[in-house]
Amino acid sequence: MTVPNMLQITSLLSAYRAGTLTPTNMVHDVIARIDAYTTKDPAVWISRVSAEKLLARAAELEKETATDLPLYGIPFAVKDNINVAGLPTTAACPAFAYYPQESAEVVQRLEAAGAIVIGKTNLDQFATGLVGMRSPYGQPHCVFNPEYVSGGSSSGSAVAVSAGLVSFALGTDTAGSGRVPAAFNNIVGLKPSRGALSTYGLVPACESLDCISVFAGSTADAWEVEHIAAAPDARAPYSRTLDARPLPLTTFRFGVLKKEDQFFDGNTANAALYARAIHLLEQIGGTPVELDFAPLKETAALLYSGPFVVERLAAIKDFYSNHRQDMDPTVGSIIDGAKNYTATDVFEGIYRQHSLQQVAQRMWADFDIMLLPTAPRIVTKQEVMEQPIAANSLLGAYTNFVNLLDMAACAVPAGFAPDGLPFGVTFIAPAFTDKDLAALAGRFHNALDEAIGAARTDKLASKADDNTPPHGRVLLAVVGAHLKGFPLHWQLEQEHAVLRSTTRTAPDYRLFALPNATPPKPGLVREQGFKGNGLEVEVYELDAAGFGRFVASVPQPMSIGRITLEDGQEVCGFLCSEAVARSGADITETGGWRYYMQTR
């Protein structure tokens, strides 16, 4: 069997059970993948299980029957603030490192189900951060652009899944660390209800809020891992039984941000992608309801701008007292702030937290789930170096309140901006709705129909081959009023056109909003020497006769010519008289007609 780019659990189990793949084959493949990827990004792993031990583990599994173990031979990674026997736990601080006598409870449960621990992944030191830049072991980067952060604090775990190095990875989530890296790397991040997964064997950040989280390529995989790992544990002080609560799955109401509460830090493409996500969730049975974000925003401020930072000091007080100089400067400065609060401040913060929980609880009468952006936008590494606190705060705008208000959350991909960077949304619901929340988020993710993880890059690279139409059929790219959901799309439907892909043009095209056009439509112009980010187009396949009828109906100043796509392929498409096009407004920076129409 050729092992797929993304190591999803179902496909690997099918291959094991069919006898076309063995754990030994899988171990060899994973080792080769990691070695190859390390040349691109050497900061993903802090420590790895030796090849000899991995092969011994594989041989041990091969004595078992694949059908008897739900995670038979499935490779996974563990964030390096979670204990794995035989490997050091560093929490990304070498002076803190120790060798645990036993693995964390969740790791033991996953290994008992047949999974194979590959190694320990990088993180923001002591799980303090959302950027993935606060580690002496290096800074993993976004799989789509090395100039951008991977997101943190579970940086290495998210990259390991997105790059196809493991099937799933354990992270942790106190303020969004299991969700932000998922969004920045085009994968799923499932944050369980607090206490559903035992924190025994976890180096705490804020023990009353910490959750061990799951990164995977699909919500089905993430839920399977959570389901296997979840169990009450008397050794973990905040452990709870996952007493499932149902959500409506066919028709449901979902809370969305009011226009005045939508904050994307100037990123109009992400604003449009959020609008598209709302529309897509409507199409699969949801009814949007505007929510009051003010109490959620106030709750979020308690975590870093309030007395809850004291809990971060409590988690490592002895180490902090003796080794403050050995800590990352930014992490150290954050924990230094704990000394500014009194016990009275802490209790007042707890009282305010519980008051806000009451407000939030009443919100669920208006809707069943929330749909929020996972983060306003991704940031560059340079931005973090210049403004380490401000850049980090930006990323927590829509995540920090969730654990304080005792909610479950599932972050899923929601498309790509014209610059090729990913955007994500998060499904949020009351505690113990984990299973149904993952199912709803999965319906959205499946409807999005995007390649997952870094595999999207491979999909784009192969589109030229994929888009070669059969003999007698034509590919046509549309950029404006013929897009799905727009006024002239019916002309494609009447010719039985089939959508083959949503992609972008080559970077040297500009888009203009044509003046006085009815219905509104754009004009596409190619400009030699111009270098933008490309413009979104939908590529349809239709038969030659239908294409001929369609072309005959195209009015001036439009014409059909050849358009070059971002992968270099040429297809038929709409072009416009340059003089007419340039008499309208240049809307190239919006990334496409759909984004322009949603944000104007």
From TrEMBL:
Limits of the Amidase domain: 31-437
Molecular function terms, GO-annotated: hydrolase activity
Pfam families reported in the protein's UniProt record: AH_C, Amidase
UniProt KW keywords: Hydrolase
Domain annotation Allophanate hydrolase C-terminal: ranges: 475-598
NCBIfam families noted in UniProt: allophanate_hyd, PRK08186.1
Protein name: Allophanate hydrolase
Organism: Acetobacter ascendens
